Structure formats: C-alpha cells, structure tokens
Amino acid sequence: MGFVDYLQYGFIQRALISGVFIALLCSILGVLIVLRRLSLIGDGLAHVTFGSVALGLALRIYPLYVTLPIVLVSSIGILKMTERARMMGDAAIGVVSSIGIAGGVILASLAGGFNVDLFSYLFGNILAISREETILSVILSVIVLGVILFYYNEILSITFDEEFARVSGIRTDRINKILVILTAVTVVLTMNVVGIMLISALLILPAVTAFQLARGFRSSLVIAALSAVLSVILGIFISIALNLPTGATIVLTNFFFFALAFLTRIGKDRARVKLHQQVGR
Amino acid sequence: MKIIEVENLRSRYNGIPVLDDITFSVSGGDYIGLVGPNGSGKTTLIKNILGILRPESGQIRLFGQYLSEFQEWFRVGYLPQRLSSLNPGFPSTVEEIVALGLIAKRRRPGSSGDAHRDAVEKALHLLNISDIRKKKIGELSGGQQQRVLIARAIINEPDLIVLDEPAAALDPETREQFYAMLTHFNRQKNATIILVTHDIGSIGQYANKLLLVDRRIVFYGSFADFCSSSHMTDLFGIHSQHVICHRHEF
Questions:
Q1: What is the pLDDT of residues B189-205, one digit of tens each?
Q2: How do the residues of chain B divide into helix, strand and coil, expressed in percent and rounded to 5?
Q3: Total-model pTM
Q4: How confident is the model at residue B109 (pLDDT cuts 50, 70, 90)?
Q5: CB under 8 A, 24+ apart: contacts of A79-85
Q6: For A168-217, what is each residue's pLDDT tens digit?
C-alpha cells in the first residue's frame, strides 16, 4: 500500500489535518516562549494536564472539558507568581508542574491506579483522534494564530524588551496574559498529538531549529512552522510504515530537522571563517 | 510648557524605599543630566516617570496629562540601561529592532508603511548603522548594539528623550557623535532630554541643568550653580571640583 492510498482513510486525514494545524500553532508559539526564556512552560502545563486528565477520568467527564479550564487557571497562576510572588519564571513553572503531577498521581491512585486511558493520554495517539476533536483543533488553532497575528508587533516588542514595550504604550500585562492563555490552549490541544510527556518537544524543537538558520524574527517563524509541519506529516507516515508510536516518531523527526539545521549552520560558519582567512592572505 | 511634573513622589523597589519626597518639573527644551551615587534611585526615578514602575504615592504628569491617562507615547523616546540583558540568540535583525520604536506611532490614524520605511532609513543613517542593518543583534559589538537601541529610541523624533547611561558602551569617537546628535535634537528640534550618567565631567558640557538625587533631590539647577555650591565639594572634593568645573565656560 502506497502513502497516497493511506490518504483515503478517514483516521489518516483527521491525523494530518489536526497535526498540521497544531504543528503550526506550537511552532509559532514556541518561538515566542523560547525567546522569553519560558521554554519549560509547556512541560509544566503538561504536568497539570496529567493531573486534570486523571481528575476527568476519575469523575467520568470527558478529560478535555476538565483539562482546558484547569490548565488555563494554572497558566495564569504561573504569570501571577512571577509578577507578585517575586518568583523567577522557571521556579513558578516548577511549583505548578509539581502540583499537577502530585495531584494526578493521588487522583489516579484514588481511582484505582493507572489505567489504559491515562496511559493513552500520557503518550498520545493522533491516529485515534475523532472528527469532533479534529474540528475543535482546527477552530482553536485558527483562533490562536489569529490572535498572534493581530498582536504580532506588540508581541515582538515585548519579547525583545518588555520595558521598552511599556514605554511604547503597549499594555504588557494584557499581552502577557494573552500569551500564557494561548500557551495553555495549545498544550491541551497538543496532548492528543504527541501525548502529555512530549508536548514541550513540539513547542521547543521547531523554535530552536529555526534559530540555527533564521535571519530575522519573521523568517524564524516561517522556518519553525515549516519544520514543524513537515515533521508531523513525515512522522505520521514513518510511524505507519515502520509500525512505531506516532507521537514519539513526530518528536524524533523534529529532532532530525534540528540536527540538520545545526550542522548546516556549523558548515556555514566554517565556510565563512575559511573565506575570511583566504581574504586575509 | 511643562513636559514632566513630579509631585511628592515616593517609590519602593522590591519593598525597599528608594525615593522619597521627590518634587520637580522639567520644561520644554531642557537638557538635564541626572546624576547620583550607585543605588541613589536614578533609574527608579525615570522608571516611575515613564510608568514602568508604579509609585507608592505621589503624582506624575507627562505633557500635562496624568500618567494613567497619557496615550501619546510616540512623543517619548527611551533607552533602557541593561544592555547585558539582551538575548544574544535573538533572531531579529538591526532594522527589525529599530522599527520596533515605531509601534507607538503605528496606532495613530494616517500612519503609512512608506513613512515607516523612511523613518527606519533615517534612524539607521543617523546612527551610522545602515551597513549592519541585516545583521542579527547578537552578532554586534556592545557599542553597535547600543547604537541600534539609540536608533530605536529616537526613530519617532520624540519631544522627550530619556536615556539611562547611554554612553557606557560607546568608544570615545562614537560618544562624541552621540552627544552631538543629542545636542542637535535639543537645540534644533527643541527636544527635552534627560540623561542618566556617572560621567559628571562630560555632562556639564551639554546639559543646561543638573538633577542630583540620593533617595531625595540633593540639587536641581544649572551646572554653574552646582559648581559653585557646597554639594560639588562635598561630593567630589576641591581637586575634582577644579578639574570638572574649569573645563566649562559659564
């Protein structure tokens, strides 16, 4: 069976559509959070996701309905801790993250131990994504990307220099709040693609890949988006062809693009040094 | 017209009292050197004036409007102090960063893309950084980075320019050019300038007023008055007073 034949299947179509939108979302948001030195916010919120999925399963409520509000509140909690509790971003993420894991473990234990459902959320299964989840992923992705585009200049200014942004008349507190809310929505959406354990990889890897090659903020967004989308498409097909877990394959494909970009940059740097030496002679 | 009015300002930083009972005003066209020992509250004062920090008590007005109501941020140019906090891996190019200064103006009705491009060109040219416009900020020397941030601060040709230790990373030649540019803005365009500095010897050549703070206002007036006051000898001693003050003609 060829790859084109696979496209006839509804579950492959749904995986590709939701995967591409979520990859776009993660890569663009990832560039912003990595530059703001909040790379691990994805990881921290993912741990909260674990706790809230456990809560949803224990209460027999569809986990997304429980996860989304809890992760949103947690993201605001991280922001408030950095603003008001004189806590650095990484420490605030650590606090929220550990509470999420601890809560999840206790709830899972109370509900009779870790079951198959909880494990499926930990490692994700994009091939099992439903029609409703696909539509929700697309709608939420479009909303999040629209908000980022609308506030593009403000977000760039704050990301580079928050103090200067404030003196430009930008409501930095409002934009910061919007950014953490968008991150929370993205983390919850990404749970279905690569699973709770690997969410931060989808946020960080495309961004660091782009920083190897990009010259300019806009081009780093484009490169991050391209590498993320290609990783999801290739990852899905490779995982089917080699019978591997899809989420983990997507993450490793992302890492392959990072390694390629890193080696390309090293090669370029060496060529430039060589050229300078030749000109010097 | 009063550009800045500060009344009974009291401010804390991380819970520690930094400024107390600060009252002064700045008129249009003033060129003020803001000086004081380390930890005296110079940076806290300008951060309060620009709304970056909230005062514990007191009133601040910019261009006659209370800070909470002030919207005309394109009239203010600001150069922050901490060059070392720049992320060297930031992917933005010089021209992208300089253009960030236009955000305050972009929101105004009638602002156009062509006008923005012209403004970027002009700022790059003025700071002599046109040739490095495509370089990433992390690829530049400290002095070049400082020129990029100064270009971002002056791109809107602001009526008020606030600079926190701007000359620290500049070589002597660029420093002279930089001071000449500020003098041009002050005299030709009537821009009001507040310059935080430790270089009290140089500032007297350019500034028409000196604001000396040490948690409170110790002195506010002309450089000539400062040189003949007891504050000068108390702070710097008679020898330094001679070295600093004799270079200037009053």
A1: 889 999 998 877 777 77
A2: 45, 25, 30
A3: 0.84
A4: very low
A5: A79/A176, A79/A177, A79/A180, A83/A173
A6: 999 988 988 888 898 888 888 888 777 887 788 889 999 999 999 998 99
pLDDT at position A228: 95
- Reported ipTM: the value is 0.86
Do the Cβ atoms of B78 and A35 come within 8 Å?
A: no
Cα(A102)–Cα(A105) distance, rounded to whole angstroms?
5
Q: Left if phi > 0, otherwise alpha if psi is -120 to 50, otherwise beta: which for A89? A: alpha
Query: With an 8 Å Cβ cutoff, is B143 touching chain A?
Result: no
Instruction: Name the residue in chain A with its Cα closest to that of B137.
Output: A216
Q: Which residue of B has its CA nearest to A152?
A: B103
**Closest in A153, A157, A220 to B91, CB measured:** A220
Name the average pLDDT for chain B. Answer: 85
Q: Which residues of A touch B (CB under 8 A)?
A: 35, 37, 86, 153-154, 156-157, 160-161, 163-170, 210-211, 214-220
**Phi-psi label, residue B51: left if phi above 0, alpha if psi -120 to 50, beta otherwise:** left
Q: Between helices A10-35 and A41-59, what is the axis angle to 10°?
A: 130
* CB contact at 8 A, B190 and B215: no
Nearest partner of B168 among B82, B236, B93, B52, judged by Cα: B82
Number of residues that this document lists for chain B: 250
- The closest of A13, A6, A18, A26 to A184, measured between CA atoms, is A26
Interface test with A, best of B16, B90, B145 (most A CBs within 10 A): B90
Which region, left, alpha or beta, applies to residue B31 given φ > 0 means left and ψ of -120 to 50 means alpha?
A: beta
Residue type for B39, please?
Answer: G
Q: Chain B partners of A158 at a C-beta cutoff of 8 Å?
A: none
Q: Lowest mean pLDDT: which of A188-192, A251-255, B19-23?
A: A188-192
Contact B57, B8 (CB under 8 A): yes
Percent of chain B past pLDDT 90, that is, above it, reads: 43
| A4, pLDDT greater than 80 | no
Collect all residues of chain B within an 8 Å Cβ-Cβ radius of residue A165: 103
Residues 6+ apart with CB under 8 A from B218: B36, B212, B231
Tokens of B162: 């606030």
* Calpha distance A116→A124 (Å, rounded): 12
Q: Which of A86, A154, A160 to mutate to test the interface with B (most CBs of B within 10 A)?
A: A160
Note whether B136 contacts A215, CB cutoff 8 Å: yes
Each residue's pLDDT tens digit, B112-158: 677 788 889 999 998 889 999 999 988 888 888 888 998 999 999 99
The answer to whether the Cβ–Cβ distance between B90 and A210 falls below 8 Å is no
- Closest residue in B to A166 (Cα–Cα): B52
Which chain B residues touch A211 with a CB distance below 8 Å?
Answer: 89, 91
